[in-house]
């Protein structure tokens, strides 16, 4: 199902940095009206001042269910037709070395917030018969497991699986609503700083990821994987046992932990 983004009203979570920020810039260039959601209000206001299109800045901590609901209630009357869920984070290191609170915050943001916003946005759009949702997962979500970035991999597996299944349901029901999952590999954003790890040795810029994502979204692609190298690597893992693939991933992630 093709998506026309030109001039749409778009809700972007995680809009203060990284992929979310680049989506805001790219969609502003398409004349979209933006509703930007993140914790860092100052960054969003600075960005809004640069974009030259109508922007609403909506500070929210999406690890809290009531904040997710507040976002939906705020946008309910604004005819937003596109939702892009970019907010999320990871933590490098052995699972037992993180606090349970950190792990649960990650699950709340990466999984619960995505599910709540997606589900409630669908409720707003289902009677219209149009709309689009793009959930930012990760190529991590397409792999068996990710030791030393374990909870992050598990949360992104949820997002990728949930989104792909939902897309098939909505298509089968002929709702007219597009749903897609963006599954990039390493991207040069604040991710590694937040995750307390070394910078990627190779990766894509957020600009390249967003450019590719928008192009594939407009063509109606459900599973979007930027980067030929990442696509080839994912294909190669199919030749390995799940255990072997997980071990290889684990060695790579362990080497990125800051000492």
Number of helices: 9
Q: What is the overall silhouette?
A: globular
What ranges have pLDDT less than 50 throughout 5 or more consecutive residues?
Answer: none
User: How many strands appear in the DSSP assignment?
Assistant: 7
Main pleated sheet: 7 strands, parallel
CATH H level, superfamily name? NAD(P)-binding Rossmann-like Domain
Q: What is the succession of H and E elements?
A: EHEHEHEHEHEHHEHH
Q: Roughly how many Å is the radius of gyration?
A: 18 Å
| Structural class by secondary-structure content | alpha/beta
Describe the strand arrangement of the main beta sheet, using strand numbers.
3-2-1-4-5-6-7
Overall number of structural domains = 1
CATH architecture call:
3-Layer(aba) Sandwich
How far do the termini sit from each other? 47 Å
CATH class: Alpha Beta
- CATH fold node name: Rossmann fold
Overall pLDDT score? 92
- The helix content, as a percent range, equals 40-55%
Beta-strand content estimate? 5-15%
């Amino acid at each position: 199902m093709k998506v026309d983004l030109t001039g749409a009203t778009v809700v972007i979570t995680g809009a203060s940095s990284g992929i979310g920020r680049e989506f805001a810039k790219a969609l502003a260039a398409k004349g979209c009206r933006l509703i930007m959601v993140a914790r860092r209000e100052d960054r969003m206001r600075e960005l809004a001042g640069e974009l030259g299109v109508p922007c609403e800045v909506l500070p929210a901590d999406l690890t809290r269910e009531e904040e997710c609901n507040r976002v939906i209630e705020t946008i309910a009357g604004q005819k937003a037709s596109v939702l892009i869920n970019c907010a999320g984070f990871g933590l490098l290191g052995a699972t037992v070395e993180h606090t349970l609170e950190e792990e649960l915050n990650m699950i709340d943001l990466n999984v619960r917030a995505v599910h709540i916003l997606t589900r409630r946005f669908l409720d707003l759009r289902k009677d219209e018969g149009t709309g689009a949702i793009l959930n930012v997962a990760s190529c991590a979500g397409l792999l068996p497991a990710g030791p030393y970035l374990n909870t992050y991999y598990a949360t992104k597996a949820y997002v990728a699986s949930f989104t792909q299944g939902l897309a098939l349901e909505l298509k089968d029901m002929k709702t007219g609503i597009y749903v897609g999952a963006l599954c990039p590999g390493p991207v040069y954003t604040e991710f590694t700083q937040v995750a307390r790890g070394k910078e990627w040795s190779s990766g894509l810029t957020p600009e390249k990821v967003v450019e590719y994502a928008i192009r594939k979204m407009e063509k109606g692609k459900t599973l979007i994987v930027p980067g030929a190298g990442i696509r080839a690597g994912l294909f190669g893992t199919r030749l390995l046992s799940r255990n072997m693939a997980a071990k290889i991933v684990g060695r790579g992630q362990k080497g990125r932990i800051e000492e």
